[in-house]
Amino acid sequence: MDLNPPSVDFAPPLHVIALATCAPGGEAGSAPEAAWLRAQRDALEAGGAHLEHWIAHWRKAPPPQDARLRALADAWHLSSAEVIAVALGCAAETDAMIGRVLAWLQAPVGGARPTLGLLATLAARFGEPAALAALAGGAARESGLIQFNAEPRALPEASLAVPLPIVFALADPASRLAPQRVHIGLAAPLALPPSLREAARSRARALSSAA
User: What is the H or E stretch that residue 35 is in?
Assistant: First the structure.
């Protein structure tokens, strides 16, 4: 096994690393989606390491477009499955090709958003065998960072999404994709009506006395 670290000149985002592990072997599959997956795999392997080493490299030195995702994963102690879910969920909302690739990989049960079954398979390849439990009961779902579809499906067939405000908040700032009323890094606190400020103070006093 090649233990050399990946090339520092090539830093793919997490969703590309994860999907590259799904590339069909040899020349199997003539669909554009299969060709795209093989191209991502070949680019990663040309970077100087096997695919399984790229996750470790990403954790140490994420590319700029994943810097906010990496900071969020650290702050919330997200599992590998949760981080991959957020990465793929965001990419599916902003990159049409990613949606096509996901639909192709998940046919006939899945659509253009990642399913828990696919995410569990990807996470297992990077050392997390209990991915379904992590996704169903972890901090990402509990906080609303990821949301399951409302259809009553078995977990492996259920798809998940990342709410659009979060998608755009995690995006590269240069893309300027944040929807109206979504602000990141405010220079000053929002102006709130006196009634709301007083309600917040009352709530804070109650919580303080209860502690």
Answer: helix 32-46
